[in-house]
Please model this.
Amino acid sequence: MLRVLERGLGAFSNFMMAIGGVAITLMMLHIAADILAKLLLNRPIVATLEIVTWYYMVATVFLPWGYVQLHKKHLTVELFTMKMPPRKRAVLEGIVSIVGAIYVGILVWLTAEHAMEQTMAGEIQDATFFDLPVWPSRWLLPVPALAMSLLFATQAIRDLQYGLTGRGGPPPSVDDGLLVEEA
Model:
């Protein structure tokens, strides 16, 4: 069951990372087109700033969260833990993952509540010549945060299982192929 959940979360996180990559590429092209239109035609693209602010930037920053957690690529300082035995380090990482799952879970709850409020209100942003609906971008935080929180929880289970019982070997690394291999 845990392995199925990890695989599903891994696939979802990889998909969101790809969408984040598409968003940053589209942002670059949109801004370049706006600059060219402004310089060559003296007519900038309407609502570039609003679209970049409310959609591209939000997607670029938040969608990769699950991917970063899946690969455990957050910034870490191992000054005091690098010499610890693997099982003790796994217990510590499990505890930290539980705290992370709770913290990010609270973030999911609060941001989903806000996203729902803005969805119900039909939140818009004035973009000079038209109103840009921005309520959909509110969901670009709680969805990847949920994936991140669930990944924290699954990683905590694996880390604690190894750290406390010695079973299962050291916590798996996605780079080792455990979470991306076929059944």
Residues 2-176 form one domain. The chain is about 65% helix and 5% strand.
